[in-house]
Amino acid sequence: MGRPRTNDETVKERLVVSATEMLATRPRESVTVRALAAAAGTSTTAVYSLFDGKDGVIGEVRNRAVAGLFQDLSAVPTSEDPLADLYALATAYHRWGRTNSHLYTVLFGGVQSFDPSGAVGTGDPIRPLLVAIDRALTESVLAGEATLIALSLWATLHGLVTLELAGALDATTAETAFQSTIPATLRGWTTPAVFRSLRRAEPAP
Asked: Which of 90, 112, 104 has the alpha carbon at shortest distance from 164?
């Protein structure tokens, strides 16, 4: 009869959860194989047998963060209004960041490098945004270069989410800021005709 397997999926999941929490709350260099094993209640051997070392665990954490954000953004339905769709994508990003604060910190908090201007893969979270922007450009709703528009929106979103997660903005203030800042950012990229129509539709002060 063979020895029971101890380095199973349960241990693997504990290591990923422990790594996520550690990476979100401490410098990456302090996340050692020994520290990971201790936090997950397992041995250093498990880290190597399941992930080939610390970098493998960190890679899995980041992969889960990327996949989760991509899944939520891809689930946003498409409407007849390109601007409404972009706002809905921003809302989904904002919600995911608040709901998955540890993963958000791992993905965008400096623990892992992130190059939003690099090549876009099929599962890249920025892809749904670029698709929506391309549609808005094709329909002459937005004017500009797609990557620059995406970076502008992402920088605004990232700033809002980061401030909220850091406790600099309470939930009410953060939501109010989101509801005013995101439309203003999108409006700044609209074509002159769309911009004028949006301004006319705004309620009088």
From this structure: 104
Q: How far apart are alpha carbons 90 and 182 in whole angstroms?
A: 8
C-alpha separations of 105 from 12, 45, 80, 167 in Å: 21, 27, 34, 13
- The whole model's pTM is what? 0.81
Identify the burial level of 142 via C-beta atoms within 10 angstroms of its C-beta, where 0-12 means exposed, 13-18 middle and 19 or more buried: buried
Q: What single string gives the DSSP state of each residue in 1-19?
A: -PPPP-SSHHHHHHHHHHH
- Give kind and range of the element (H or E) at residue 102: helix 101-108
Helices (H) and strands (E) in the chain, counts: 10, 0
The Cα 174–Cα 165 span in angstroms is 10
State the number of CA atoms in the 13 A half-sphere of 39 facing the CB: 20
Tell me phi and psi for residue 142, to 5 degrees.
-115, 160
The two tokens of residue 181 are 């800042």
**pLDDT, greater one: 5 or 173:** 173
- The tens digit of pLDDT for each residue in 1-14 reads 333 345 678 999 99
Q: How far is CA 148 from each of CA 30, 75, 198, rounded to the nearest angstrom?
A: 36, 24, 22
Rounded Cα distance, 21 and 106, in Å: 9
Amino acid at position 134, single letter: D
Residue 173: CB atoms within 10 A of its CB come to 12
* Size (the chain), residues: 205
